[in-house]
Amino acid sequence: MYINKPAFKEFPLAFMGLESIQQSKKFVNTTNFNQFHTAKEVAELRKVVKACGDAKLNLDARKAAYAVLFDKWEELQDWTVSQLLQFLRVENVTLASHIIRFLAKKYDKNPLKDGSELLILGKATKWKNQRALKARIIEEEVSCVSELTESTTHVLLGGQLEKTLEKSDSWENVTYLNQAQLKDFLESKEDLFLKDSSLSDQEIENIRLLLSNPSEENVQLALQLLRTGGIPKPIFTDLFAVHVVHQNKKIRKSIRKLLRPFMDENDLKALLSCGQYFYNINGLEHYLVNSSCFNAYEIMLWLFKERGIGSNFLLNKTTEEQAKAFIKMKLKKGRFLNFQECKDLKNLPDVLHCFPEIEKINLSKTGFIGVPKVLLKYDFPNLKKVDMRHSVISYLTIKVRKLERTQFEAKYPDCKLIL
């Protein structure tokens, strides 16, 4: 519940002193409590009230629970980690998730690695067999202990904590993990995929053909070959493409698992920012520019060919040579440049002056708010027509459009500008 509400002291303390949902309903109905909280928040508060009553927490602890629920961590500066961990004993999932998220973020000191000593606090609910989980952790050369010691480096924050924790300064000196972080660590260890693939060029081409095939069986076969032969760098773009277009969740999950050893958090966000029925072009561009795993130009070029998005990135956020290559691809008969319906396109790069033979430019249904500056900056002696119908500029005021037309016609009196 990520909200910003007034501090607890501005509310009647009596609310958190209640011990049942029925009492809290009566309280809400007879006070102005609803003016500070939505119905959904009040419903969640009622559950917390009941959970605190069942756990027999005192009023100070209940006030702290309220602060946790609404992320008022500044009101808990005097609370130690061991005191906060006691809230994992309260049977309320929302309360526990807030505690786990806070500790995993604040005490994220060192990643889990070989030689670490891990304490599992509570039950790791993402795994059915707890003994098998501990055995799996030990296989990865990570010690798994049942009590906090001075040598403990990491604590996994699980759920359903039953025992009372001993007060110790050691709780402040460890790295806290949530279950998703442990799962990522174990999955990264399951398969070793080498970047220096043993596959030949012909085998790589065959795998590409299998990945581009609409048959799920062929895609699964390609993924199996990559598991055994390694993943060459050129295949990363193909895997990204399959992850975008495929509906099968198992195939998408298998691709993420294959790429996980090579991806950081930024790369994963890039992968997840584009799906079969959605895309976040601004987020995708940001993540790809900073990607250490994916070739941004290849992926955006593929997205442009498949969905018509990414033209602004390909022209203005790549190298000059890449921008030239893209312009040549869009140049028909060497004279007609067509960017019709490239809605994210807002600017043409200076490298366009390398193509003085251009006669016509179609910028209709684009994001331009004015005549491209490159046309005014450089000379295009053969230019005869610039079409900007239904672009953003078409919906601006008459005064703005007249000013743009005046500037353009002063330089190109024989060229037709359509706004």
Written overview of the protein:
- This protein folds into four domains: 1-78, no CATH class; 106-188, Rossmann fold; 201-309, no CATH class; 325-418, Leucine-rich repeat, LRR (right-handed beta-alpha superhelix) (Alpha-Beta Horseshoe).
- It has 19 helices and nine strands.
- The chain has helices at 14-17, 21-30, 39-54, 59-69, 81-85, 93-106, 130-139, 179-190, 201-212, 216-229, 235-245, 249-259, 265-272, 281-289, 296-307, 311-316, 320-330, 373-377, 398-411; strands at residues 117-121, 143-145, 154-157, 175-177, 331-332, 336-338, 360-362, 385-387, 416-418.
- A hairpin with a 3-residue loop joins β5 and β6 (336-338).
- α2 crosses α3 (39-54) and α11 (235-245) runs antiparallel to α12.
- The protein is elongated and about 85 Å long.
Search tags:
5-stranded mixed β-sheet; disordered N terminus; alpha/beta; elongated; 419 residues; 4 domains; 4-stranded parallel β-sheet; 9 strands; Rossmann fold
Beta-strand residue percentage: 5-15%
- Tell me the helix content: 40-55%
Class by SSE composition: alpha/beta
Domains (count):
4
Report low-confidence residues grouped into runs of 5 or more: 1-12, 191-196
Strand order of the largest sheet: 5-6-7-8-9
Question: How many extended strands?
Answer: 9
- H/E element sequence: HHHHHHEHEEEHHHHHHHHHHEEEHEHE
Radius of gyration: 30 Å
Number of helices: 19
The CA-CA distance between the termini, in Å, is: 48 Å
The description of the largest β-sheet is: 5 strands, mixed
